[in-house]
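Message: A physicist's question: would you kindly supply an amino acid chain plus fold tokens?
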Amino acid sequence: MSNESALSLQRPGSYEANRDIVFMILPLLALATFFYGMRPIGLCLVAAFTAMLCDHLVAWLRSHTHNREENSSIPAALVLVMLLPATVHYYVVIVSVIVATMLGKHAFGGYGHYPFNPSALGYAVAAVSWPGQVLFYPTPFSEIGLFDVSGVTLLESAAHTLRAGGVPNTSLFDLVLGSYAGPIGTTSVLVIIACAMYLWMRRGITLSVPLGFLLACAAVAFFYPRVNTLGLEPPWLYLDTRLLSLRYEILSGALIFAAVFLINEPVTRPKNTRAHFAYGLLLGFMTMMFRYFGSYDTGVCFAVLAVNALSAPLDSLFSRRAPQKGVRA
């Protein structure tokens, strides 16, 4: 990334965009508090404090004054927490935020320079290191203490049921409202869509990236559904099974949340707007491959890390050659 591009990402507009992300996390956090009590708030406070501490530590180690205008670590930490269950231990949040901030962000030079999404990196480390805590979720309205999660019944996600070829026991109404076992802030489709509309009107996100992403996810879910382990049959057969697969693949898990808060991250997505749709398509396909053949429920985070490496090549592929003087087309 050029110095000019990096500086443009650190202007006040970026400060406002990061502030908008934090603002849009609040309704998701409010709903999580309604479902799980005060623990999601505690997890978010710990994550935000850890991210700020990391920023100040890096500034001290580099003998620099901490730039208060650069606030990207806090929204990245909050997005990371939204991907975790409400019963996750605080030390898992602290370690994953440290990885996201120190390794994912500052190790590459800070905001505007890192090649991989810090939130996705932090989640990937947490999922690989503590799968028993990250991949099991409490049901809504469970009695979860602020510091004690013993005795809470944990369930596997809908993605695990789909991987086994079954049908999740979750109604469409619960899928839309988010009243089922899942990560803290990724289950309520209605709230996430409302957040997406606000961010789009504020020009915090683009529509081409999530459009390509969801289109690719929907195509894979429809033509090769995991429900009832349907094979590569002609697409006009078993329409009821295909639509059922489409419903659960898109509405359960973190696909809608990722389309708004992960894949639209301005530093790691392609800078060329003409590459956004192709970037989204590639991300959607890779996400479904991780879902179908991977070992982790939130495969979108691993797909984001893989496809982030292709942002620069996509920029080059879709860049328009400037006409040279004296040369006729």
Remarks:
- The radius of gyration is 20 Å.
